[in-house]
Amino acid sequence: MKVQFWGAAQTVTGSMHMVHHNGKQILLDCGLYQGRRKIAFERNKNLPFDATKVDAVILSHAHIDHSGNLPSLVKAGFKGPIYSTSATRDLATIMLVDSAKIQTNDVKYVNKKRAKKGQAPFTPLYEQEHAIETLRRFRSIEYNNLFDVLPGVTACLHTAGHMLGAASVEVNLHSDNPEDKPTRLVFSGDIGRPEQPIIKEPSIVAGADYLIMEATYGNRIHPEGGDAKATLKEVAHKVYNDRGKLIIPAFSVGRTQEIVFRLNQLAENGELPPMKVHVDSPLAVNSTDIFRSHPECFDDEMINAILEEADEDPLNFDKLNYIRSANASKALNHSKEPCIIISASGMCEAGRILHHLKNNITKKSTTILFAGYQAPHTLGRILLDQSLEEVKIYGQPYRVNAQVCKLEGSSGHADQHELLEWASQTAELGNLKKIALVHCEMEPATELKKQLELRKLGSVMIPAPGDEMEMK
Ligand SMILES: [Zn+2]
Ligand SMILES: [Zn+2]
Fold first, then answer.
1. Same domain, 196 and 341
2. N or C: which end of the chain has fewer CB within 10 A?
């Protein structure tokens, strides 16, 4: 009985952990590794295990760093079920199809260059058919329902407060003797925050014997009262007075809806300047529809907003414009009006956000507001760190004259205090022996390890790819 860590091990992206029990293998998440393009492509393509020998997958949530390599798994011969909540399944439907499109387009661009040099073309990581075959393998399980994964293995999904449908996963590994208490492995998935708008708060999964826990912000305390709504209001007024554009790179699924929800609150209270707000991402538009169809995931604030608002839609207001078509997106380039543009990708690696940055980054009247985690080496991270005066977009250099700021209080991840609290409560009623810290860079992991050890919660490891945690 053991877990082997294959992804999000000493790094944030590419979540992938294999549970071994009674000769069976259960994969927790199968995420896309994101980083330098060439390394990422190789790493995502070459799965470190035999996909045909994996018996089942349990998916914590739909974010691409957790779900995005499932089509590679299927392409490599995986034939088992993929368990997730129904909201995660619905979001994965659009995200994996979108990801397949990105993979295909990425290779097209590279292959054009290779053809000019007389080099053989690359094949995409995976294509639409693999994404669709992946979706066929999904089995929806609602929160708080114990279900059979395989003979001798049961599991239960608990709210993680991180994004719509996100779960912490409880896995119970039974021995051959029915008298024995099963070994309980808890995988946190990504743990959100109680303040997170729209969705229910994280729940505690008590009685863990072994814990795999995310530590994205293991060395960070989120600023007290980091009030996202107040920041949005302030920045919107500033940009309106500058007659500029406010560009918000945001993940299409989750962060975009949260920002829209906050802007809707401001608009309802007459606190937004009279400027248009464009959500420019077909994926964001589609996922907003999915949000609307999963009220079982909503917190009280969201449910009250639906009941109280005249239009019964807290994800829409008069000045809001959801954009699907490429032409409408391009038309924004010519608009001289001050406006807010929320677009993807959230780390500025691809997608329409690049056009908006290209057209506005050299202007002093532009403000770029980051609303989420930026992985090292991404354009988003370079801009946020303000480490370069000039950045390359589509291979061309652009001077950064725009102002850059960050939306505090908008984190989708628990901070150090919240992680410690979560771990302590998870340890209750159980006999917590080992904790593996994943989904983090080394610095936050090392700091959180120190804090967990001070509290004597169990022995703590920071696994490298391929490392194992033995379980009894
Ligand atoms: Zn996530
Ligand atoms: Zn994640």
1. no
2. C
